[in-house]
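UbiA family prenyltransferase
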Amino acid sequence: MSQQTALGPAGVSGRGDLAAYARLAKLDIYDYYLGLLVVWALLASAVRWKPQTLGLLALTLVAEVVVVAAMVGFDDVTGYRDGSDAANYGSDAARRRLARKPLVAGTLTEAQALRFSWAATVLGSALWAAVVALAPHRPVWAVVLAAVCVAASVQYSWGLKISYRGFQELFLIGLGVGWTLVPYGLLTGGASGFVIMQAVLFGSGPMLFGLYSNTNDADGDRAAGRITVATLVSAPAHRVFVAAMTGAQVVLVAGATVTGVAPWWFAVAMVPLVAMRLAQLVIGFRGDILRARRIAIHAHRVTVVLLVAADLTAGALS
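Predicted structure tokens:
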């Protein structure tokens, strides 16, 4: 009996319908795409509503969605092959929605997932090339960073298998930083300290909720040979690491305000974020990792709302 038949629910064939492909692409996880809202709010009011600006942001959104579809598609194939997805999702399917892993659930075949991922890789690369070609500015750093983000995304769990080589946490924050700085740089030609600070703050959000996933998945990842901080250190040491990364967000906000990189009121505007981060730490330390992860996801989305509001306010006051 094949692995897919054994793991898939009774009576389900790998027919590959649109819903299964949507789950493979993880279209319900849109957190990286929210950075474009921050980019839009950071733009000068004279630029923000230009049709060319909105058009480029829309094209960038499509390019990001397609590249992420390739990334998570390859990730699912790798996780299916090494058994880590079956180990990490099969034991808690009710809370982690086994259907989100269509290979393990048996709603897609490995061949279908691979074809989808390669097609998304080609299309996503072409779309990013179009974004760069149509941009009003093309600073070298933004073009190079865009290429690095695309290449690293596709090889997150495939090719170089970045997430298996000990660079997962760095990738999770780096992609968010890159996908904030690149479109801003292509639209304006540069990036101030205030913009860079917000890119780092935004990028740290996916990294933080990824840390809670890694905590929950440590045993399965370790068995599959996936190197993360959670697989290398003890559970108490990883809790300290999570706390340190959470504290770094708070320090970033406070430091930007104290040094004048951000307006004096910026730290006050971010107080709701600090409260949510403290709540997720307490809940996570008490052992409810998946609930802490959900709070971390919501905290990231609240961060976006707060940054957009702060940027619009800063623009109105300038």
